[in-house]
Amino acid sequence: MSFDVPDERRYLESHEWALETDGVVRVGISDFAQDELGDVVFVELPDEGDDLEQGTEFGVVESIKAVSDLYAPVGGEVVAINADLFDAPELVNEDPFGEGWMLEIEADDPDELEVLLTAEEYEDQIA
Amino acid sequence: MPLQTPPLRGIHDERGAKFTEFGGWDMPVEFDSIQTEHAAVREDVGIFDVSHMGQIHVTGPDATELMQRLTSNDVSRLSVGDSQYAAITDEDGIVIDDTVVYRLPDDDETPQESHGDGDAADGEPTYLFVPNAGTDEATHERWLSYRNEWDLEATVDNRTDEYAMFAVQGPNAVDLVASITADPVGDLERFEAQYATIDGVDCWTARTGYTGEDGFELIVPWADAAEIWTALDCQPCGLGARDTLRIEAGLLLAGQDFDHEDNPRTPYEAGIGFTVALETEFVGRDALAAVDAAGVDERLVGFQLIDRGVPRHGYDITTTESRVIGTVTSGTMSPTLEKPIGLGYVPVEYAEPGTTLQVVVRGQSKKARVETTPFIDTV
């Protein structure tokens, strides 16, 4: 079984991905993570305006069989959440790097991303 | 301790199954996705490998008495080809395990020898019962020790490693099995069983299951397991879907909805009082007669979460004033209803359907409502 690991993103060991565009970091979970969880049935996200620190919990994703905490890849203010996931949590399974995104953080310090895993390093972790 | 492996571990692996440890066995938990497998069973047909279930064979002049005195139901009512659901209780009436007891043809020795053509007039009564995964050795010991204590003439064999077990479940399950055997399995009533010959192999075929759907459970000689599995060509399903299906059907999981050590319950509390035949003599009978007369303080209920969230084993159940009154024993997002549902014990005054409760999900109180079980229409 092989999993998508898009090159341009950074990853956490806990399987979140981060994609920065002009200081705003979009966050979701990896293809590997969605496959491990199985059918995602529930996603809990913070509110827009909440402040997160790098590495802290920002929410929960639940599949039928498991509960998994979600960790912030970067510190900053939550500027958007993907409210579509409340009614269609299966988007996380269907399109984890696209429509299954979870939130956007306006990074206090985009350099924090540098400590995260590269695609290559993450691929080694899940191999 | 190394995990026990079902006979078809390799076949499941090739099919792309994910595995999990369950009751000391390395079992397939998911083949495609729980929702896909669940839907196949509700709408069409699916097959489960449940070879982790135990099989204990009991035969001899006193076999009926031994079974009667160690299970809660009335074994004397079983004719050849009947089966019944029963609890195995201790002296205090606490459920140790739940099981299905099958009455085999008299003197039947399958799979070790070929079985006879049915009810030999002067044969010895013979039973096969199915304790839960990982409990077969302790159960076998229990049967032997009581047999010796009561000086009964019966042979008790643990044949867990000789039989595979498959469950074929769903509205089209009967047609599927009937299409590959000449035996009239479609004529069986619920909880009736017979041998059906599939690809030349005699399979003990019972109209029982753990999903709320129609279908069969087949007990198959381990050596022929691959052949039979392949012949029963339909959606393979893992333990994940087995769990969501049985929760929707309001069926208990041993070790979770009751546990002899961690969550000791009588059959009455667990909602399986219908398995208790007080007119028979069995271990725990007197204690249960007292419980039956006095009534229970708590019992297992089904509930649905009204707020968003998923109830899980071990979460607190509280009153609307947040006083803790019970614990969730099983919970899931119901694939059929697309609603979060669960089972748990509450005091009887909170057990009426429609009662509003709360379930504490990771520190947050979520509103819940007591529901009648099963949650779905079942056979």
UniProtKB/TrEMBL annotation, chain A:
GO terms for cellular component: cytoplasm; glycine cleavage complex. Transmembrane segments: none annotated. PROSITE patterns: BIOTINYL_LIPOYL, LIPOYL. It comes from the Archaea. Its cofactor is (R)-lipoate. The modification N6-lipoyllysine is found at K65. Binds 1 lipoyl cofactor covalently. Keywords: Lipoyl. The keyword Disulfide bond does not apply. InterPro entries: 2-oxoA_DH_lipoyl-BS (IPR003016), Biotin_lipoyl (IPR000089), GCV_H (IPR002930), GCV_H/Fam206 (IPR033753), GCV_H_sub (IPR017453), Single_hybrid_motif (IPR011053). Residues 24-106 form the Lipoyl-binding domain. GO terms for biological process: glycine decarboxylation via glycine cleavage system; protein lipoylation. Pfam families: GCV_H. PANTHER family: GLYCINE CLEAVAGE SYSTEM H PROTEIN, GLYCINE CLEAVAGE SYSTEM H PROTEIN-RELATED. The glycine cleavage system is composed of four proteins: P, T, L and H. The glycine cleavage system catalyzes the degradation of glycine. The H protein shuttles the methylamine group of glycine from the P protein to the T protein. Belongs to the GcvH family. This is Probable glycine cleavage system H protein. It comes from Natrinema gari JCM 14663.
UniProtKB/TrEMBL annotation, chain B:
Substrate binds at E217. GO terms for cellular component: glycine cleavage complex. Residues 105-131 are annotated as: Disordered. The keyword DNA repair does not apply. GO terms for biological process: glycine decarboxylation via glycine cleavage system; methylation. It catalyses: N(6)-[(R)-S(8)-aminomethyldihydrolipoyl]-L-lysyl-[protein] + (6S)-5,6,7,8-tetrahydrofolate = N(6)-[(R)-dihydrolipoyl]-L-lysyl-[protein] + (6R)-5,10-methylene-5,6,7,8-tetrahydrofolate + NH4(+). GO terms for molecular function: aminomethyltransferase activity; methyltransferase activity; transaminase activity. It is an enzyme of class 2 (transferase). Keywords: Aminotransferase, Methyltransferase, Transferase. Residues 299-377 form the Aminomethyltransferase C-terminal domain. InterPro entries: GcvT, GcvT/YgfZ/DmdA, GcvT/YgfZ_C, GcvT_bac, GcvT_C, GCVT_N, TrmE/GcvT-like. Its EC number is 2.1.2.10. Residues 11-107, 125-279 form the GCVT N-terminal domain. SUPFAM superfamilies: Aminomethyltransferase beta-barrel domain (SSF101790), Folate-binding domain (SSF103025). Pfam families: GCV_T, GCV_T_C. PANTHER family: AMINOMETHYLTRANSFERASE, AMINOMETHYLTRANSFERASE, MITOCHONDRIAL. The glycine cleavage system catalyzes the degradation of glycine. NCBIfam families: gcvT, PRK00389.1. Belongs to the GcvT family. The glycine cleavage system is composed of four proteins: P, T, L and H. This is Probable aminomethyltransferase. It comes from Natrinema gari JCM 14663. The gene is gcvT.
